[in-house]
């Protein structure tokens, strides 16, 4: 899964280029930097590799989402529809621009259920934010149709699905804007970083200013820049962009290894009739960083986890249903409105009602699901060994359940 597993000379070379001049800031210092612009170079590579017109690097995936929302004019009073299964960054970004996160159920794609999205639309809805979790995608045709019909913004959180595609287009380039995260555990990494991708020049220009205190970057130097609007500092550094330049060239290799290992592992689980797999709207477009699969019931899945723990081989298997960071069930800080700063009454009211909102549809999906992370460092022998051990553990719990039934 994570690109850091393949760090090598390429990342070092780009880092050393930057350290030759010592100019680790992406803007300014045009003389001393001697023509070295790693962030600009990476933005160009991103547009080429992923097939979008514009890319704006940021300090993180979270700040990329925040930046995209600001650039798309999403803010106070606006409702943004997001899934109940995602990383906390999704609602953090929505709240940071003053908007209201509206959480809806996921289906067996592990992403937004289009029917749940439709049912959640109100006159205040401005944006639908699918999150392409664990390497695979939401049903983009259905979501696009809903957004078009209701005149809504489609913002893709593709932070976890770098390199994934839907009907030939890269995830993150299909909506009005899309984001990747380049944090340390993502498919390719800058250490920390993110990007907003868009085909709108206007959105790009807003992202460009917003991530650098509102600078229009049109002055003869930074002091002469104008500030057409208020921004923040969500800049990436040249050192982080340098690492990304090494990583982006490894993406085809990373995807190929993931695909191969994923297929081997899947072949073991596919032999068990009780195991089903995540629904993938475009199976060709999976980035294969995880194998997500289901057992028929929550109790069988919990028995499997207990068995894997007992054998000390559970590592790398993510049971999101009990996870503190990825599922509504454990987001107590959000549901209890535990913020350091005061929040608006509208945000507070919307968050408090999450305590009683019915997520039984999501629960029924997530309580039966495990995502197995695919490592880039496994040998073929190790993948076969893992597959065999997992399949044996599943068969064991199924047999025990059959006996006790
Ligand atoms: C990682 C991640 C983010 C945020 O990325 P950071 O770079 O860690 O801020 C946003 N959304 C999802 C789904 C993520 O997995």
Word description of this protein:
This protein is 40% helix and 13% strand. With 405 residues, it is of the alpha/beta class. It has two domains: 3-250, Aspartate Aminotransferase, domain 2 (3-Layer(aba) Sandwich); 252-404, Aspartate Aminotransferase, domain 1 (Alpha-Beta Complex). A seven-stranded mixed beta sheet has the order 1-9-8-5-4-2-3, with helices on both faces. It is globular and about 80 Å long. The two termini are 38 Å apart. The relative contact order is 0.15. The mean pLDDT is 97. The structure holds pyridoxal-5'-phosphate. Pyridoxal-5'-phosphate (PLP) binds next to helix 3 and helix 4. Pyridoxal-5'-phosphate binds next to helix 3 and helix 4.
Ordered list of secondary-structure elements with their pairings:
Layout: H1 9-21, H2 38-50, E1 54-58, H3 61-71, E2 79-83, H4 89-96, E3 100-104, H5 114-120, E4 125-128, H6 140-150, E5 153-157, E6 165-166, E7 169-170, E8 177-181, E9 194-198, H7 201-210, H8 238-248, H9 251-269, E10 276-277, E11 290-294, H10 298-310, E12 317-318, H11 332-335, H12 345-352, H13 360-366, E13 369-373, H14 380-404
Helix pairs in contact: 1-8, 2-8, 3-4, 3-7, 9-14, 10-14
The structure holds pyridoxal-5'-phosphate (PLP).
């Amino acid at each position: 899964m994570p690109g850091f597993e393949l760090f090598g000379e390429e990342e070092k070379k780009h880092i050393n280029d930057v350290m030759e001049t010592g100019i680790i800031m992406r803007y300014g210092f045009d003389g001393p930097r001697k023509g070295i612009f790693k962030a600009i170079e990476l933005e160009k590579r991103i547009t080429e590799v992923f097939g979008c017109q514009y890319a704006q690097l940021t300090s993180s995936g979270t700040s990329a989402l925040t930046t995209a929302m600001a650039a798309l004019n999403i803010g106070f009073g606006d409702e943004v529809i997001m899934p109940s299964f995602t990383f906390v960054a999704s609602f953090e970004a929505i709240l940071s621009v003053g908007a209201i996160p509206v959480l809806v159920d996921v289906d067996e794609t592990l992403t937004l259920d289009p029917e749940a999205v439709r049912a959640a639309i109100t006159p205040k809805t401005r944006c639908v934010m699918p999150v392409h979790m664990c390497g695979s995608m939401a049903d983009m045709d259905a979501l696009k149709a809903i957004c078009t019909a209701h005149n809504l913004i489609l913002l893709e959180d593709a932070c976890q699905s770098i390199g994934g595609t839907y009907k030939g287009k890269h995830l993150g380039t299909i909506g009005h804007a899309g984001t990747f995260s380049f944090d340390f555990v993502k498919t390719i990494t800058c250490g920390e970083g993110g990007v907003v991708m868009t085909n709108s020049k206007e959105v790009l220009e807003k992202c460009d200013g917003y991530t650098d205190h509102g600078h229009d970057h049109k002055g003869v130097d930074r002091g002469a820049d104008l500030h057409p609007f208020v921004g923040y500092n969500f800049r990436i550094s040249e050192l982080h962009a340098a690492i990304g330049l090494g990583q982006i060239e490894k993406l085809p290799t990373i995807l190929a290894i993931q695909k191969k290992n994923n297929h081997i592992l899947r072949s073991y689980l596919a032999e068990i009739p009780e195991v089903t797999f995540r629904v993938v709207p475009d199976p060709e477009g999976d980035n294969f960083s995880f194998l997500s699969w289901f057992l028929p019931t929550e109790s069988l899945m919990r028995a499997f986890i207990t068995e894997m723990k007992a054998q000390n081989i559970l590592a790398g298997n993510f049971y999101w249903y009990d996870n503190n960071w990825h599922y509504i069930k454990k987001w107590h800080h959000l549901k209890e409105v535990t913020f350091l700063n005061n929040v608006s009454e509208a945000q507070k009211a919307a968050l408090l009602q999450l305590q009683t909102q019915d997520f039984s549809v999501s629960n029924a999906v997530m309580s039966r699901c495990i995502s197995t992370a695919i490592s880039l460092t496994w040998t073929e022998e190790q993948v076969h060994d893992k597959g065999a051990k997992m399949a044996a553990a599943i068969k064991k719990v199924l047999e025990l359940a059959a006996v006790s039934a």
